[in-house]
Design a protein that fits this description.
Blueprint (H helix, E strand, L loop, with lengths): L2 E3 L3 E4 L4 E5 L9 H5 L8 E5 L2 H6 L1 H4 L6 E3 L4 E2 L2 E6 L2 E6 L5 H4 L5 H5 L2 E3 L5 E3 L4 H31 L2 H6 L2 H4 L8 E4 L6 H7 L4 H28 L3 E5 L12 H5 L7 H15 L2 H6 L1 E7 L2 E8 L12 E3 L2 E7 L4 E4 L4 H5 L5
Parallel strand pairs: 11-12
Antiparallel strand pairs: 1-5, 2-3, 3-4, 6-10, 7-8, 9-10, 12-14, 13-14, 15-16, 16-17
Length: about 350
């Protein structure tokens, strides 16, 4: 006895849609759990493909996808498609390599219903074909599912509100690109440049350089906070490089200044510089949190949006002068005195 159900994938050239039809599987109730919202009520998934998508999935769509076959000994093999480098590959799935292809939670579907007979063969205890078809279909859909999910997350990023950014999990926050609500700074007090100059300068030169460098790094933090406050509010994350978003942590700051050694000291120092160089009210209204990402500590400063009830925008100390800054989509820019009315006339009455 051999039981077999083919996995049907179709691409509609006219409609420019990739279609996987599950109507014959009797899986109407559990498919939404597999595809997590991408499956329509009629149990079909229709994904519109752009020209880039078509190129990306050309090899994928041309695969001769094997059927799920269970023999009279209730044994079967599982194969899946995965991306290796620039090419799509197909390979057998075993217990040893399962986690390479899939999330850990998915292995429960196999281990609760089957055992492995040898390296490449699974043997099912109870012939629950719907569950096996569910897993098999999921395996073939996963590359497309991951790609579509990443696009959805990208779209959702543009829809995030100030509150979303200020409450987002730190692991997700550090992966986002800088925007009007979000800015990254690697450090607030100490950086690699100081270490490099120490080897090349005499004691007096290095002392002057270090003091000026500390002021510059401090002022860059103040600039970011001032700019966010004058714009829509947002989050400044210290301990993350802005270009590649590598998490470096605030440990260099904490290890090179006794007054920053503890988290509470670091928090109070931030409040103090804001109070001294911007305004006391803002120093009291910011929220400073500390999170651990990749084993390193980052500081997240939640900056409120400046109220329309204020007389005008705030300013901060920068390069030994008082400057007004405003955060834009990609950068924080200085607003000259002659431009203040133009930028804030609708904001402050």
């Amino acid at each position: 006895m051999i039981l077999q159900k083919p996995v049907i994938f179709e691409y509609d050239i006219v409609e420019n849609k990739f279609n996987a039809d599950f109507k014959n599987y009797g899986l109407n109730n559990i498919l939404p759990e597999i595809i997590n919202g991408l499956v329509k009520k009629d149990s079909s998934i229709n994904i519109e493909l752009s020209d880039i998508d078509l190129k990306k999935f050309k090899e994928y769509l041309n695969f001769d996808l094997p059927s799920l076959v269970i023999n009279d000994q209730r044994e079967f093999t599982l194969q899946t498609i995965y991306k290796k480098g620039k090419e799509w590959k197909i390979d057998y799935v075993t217990k040893k390599n399962f986690l390479y292809f899939f999330d850990e939670s998915q292995i429960g579907l196999l281990t609760q219903n089957s055992i492995t007979a040898d390296e490449k063969t699974w043997a099912i205890k109870n012939l629950d074909f719907d569950k096996m078809a569910q897993l098999y279909v999921f395996m073939y859909l996963k590359p497309l599912y991951d790609y579509e999910l990443s696009k959805l997350e990208k779209i959702n990023e543009s829809q995030l509100t100030l509150e979303d950014y200020q409450t987002l999990e730190p692991e997700k926050l550090v992966k986002l690109e800088e925007n009007i609500f979000l800015e990254f700074k690697q450090t607030a007090y100490w950086d690699e440049e100081i270490n490099l100059k120490k080897l090349k300068m005499d004691e007096k030169q290095f002392k002057n350089f270090k003091e000026n460098r500390h002021i510059l790094l401090r002022d860059q933090v103040l600039k970011a906070i001032c700019g966010l406050h004058n714009s829509e509010g947002g989050v400044l994350v210290i301990g993350v490089k802005d270009k590649d978003r590598e998490v470096t942590g605030i440990e260099p700051d904490m290890n090179n200044n006794d007054i920053l050694e503890q988290k509470e000291d670091y928090r109070q120092w931030l409040r103090n510089i804001i109070t001294s160089h911007i305004e006391e009210k803002l120093g009291l209204n910011i929220t400073v949190k500390f999170d651990t990402v990749n084993g390193k500590t980052i500081s997240r400063i939640n900056v409120p949006r400046r109220s329309e009830d204020e007389k005008g925008p705030c300013s901060t100390t920068y390069d030994n002068r008082k400057v007004v800054f405003k955060r834009g989509d990609e950068e924080t820019r200085e607003i000259k005195s002659t431009e203040i009315l133009e930028h804030f006339k609708e904001r402050f009455k």
